[in-house]
Amino acid sequence: MTDVKDAPASSLAYEPKVLAKKYRIDIEDAVKILEQHGADKKAVDKAARRIAA
After folding, report:
1. Up-side HSE of residue 16: CA atoms within 13 Å toward CB?
2. Owning domain of residue 18
3. How many distinct structural domains can be found in the chain?
């Protein structure tokens, strides 16, 4: 997989920092979610909600 830092901005659903703040999760968790789900915003939101719960 490509590194999140190297991915074009349009290919990401969120920036890791924004995702972490929105769901109040660690940035490391946000990075893992984004690496796993990429631009699928629905899947990213679902995974972040699972961690936040």
Report:
1. 16
2. 4-52
3. 1
Buried b (16+ CB within 10 A) or exposed e, 24-48: ebeeebbbbbbeebbeeeeebbebb
Using CA atoms, how far residue 29 sits from 9, 11, in Å, is 19, 18
Backbone angles phi, psi at 22, to 5 degrees: -60, -40
The distance from CA 17 to its chain's CA centroid, rounded to whole angstroms, is 9
Taking only the tens place, the pLDDT of each residue in 2-53 is: 555 555 555 667 899 999 999 999 999 999 999 999 999 999 999 999 999 8
Structure tokens of 23?
């769901």
